Amino acid sequence: MQAKTHSICVFCGSRTGRNPEYAIAAKEFGTELAIQGWRLVYGAGDIGLMGEVARAAQCAGGKTFGVIPKQLVEFEVAKHDLDSLVVTENMHERKSVMFMNSDAFVVLPGGVGTIDEFVEILTWRHLGFHTKPVGLLNIGGYWDLTVRALGGVVEKGFTEFELLSYFEVLGSVAESIGWLRDKLALGDTRNRP
């Protein structure tokens, strides 16, 4: 019996940002996904951190699954040499397809779209729609303010402290790969209706 190939969804920016560490981490993460034999699920862009992580995964022999709304095919320069490319009608469908094809989520630096993807997947976890692992790859402290804001939501009484346990803040690519190995070995990737 062949072992299941895990699929890791990466949310990240269609730009590289000002800190060169972001692109370095995206390349390293894409390479590590391939080394582990895990498939990359991502937003199908060929630019920014999205392009970096996908090219690195491909160069290391990894499988890639991209999902992009038709309105962004040109804007995010869709990467057409992926193993699988799905073009959706809209952003909601994009996120649903990415979710259904992933066992875990790692969020690299990105803009408001990346923040939206993280918050939505966190909300679904909070509401009990899934128990899939969610990690923030906090390169150069990028996610510090977001984590602090979520702590403020808890502190002001708008949600339970448990919310902060639904994601892990990861300080390096090596730490994120180790965390994924642990989570995937536990089989902590279930969907619930």
From the structure above, extract its key features.
7 strands, alpha/beta, 193 residues, seven-stranded parallel β-sheet, 6 helices
Task: Break the fold down into its secondary structure elements and pairings.
Layout: E1 7-11, H1 20-36, E2 39-42, H2 48-59, E3 64-69, E4 84-88, H3 91-100, E5 104-107, H4 112-126, E6 134-137, H5 144-155, E7 168-170, H6 173-185
Parallel strand pairs: 1-2, 1-5, 2-3, 3-4, 5-6, 6-7
Give a verbal description of the structure.
This protein has helices spanning 20-36, 48-59, 91-100, 112-126, 144-155, 173-185, and strands at 7-11, 39-42, 64-69, 84-88, 104-107, 134-137, 168-170. With 193 residues, the protein is α/β, with parallel strands linked by helices. It has a seven-stranded parallel β-sheet, sandwiched between helices. Helix 2 (48-59) links the parallel strand 2 (39-42) and strand 3 (64-69).
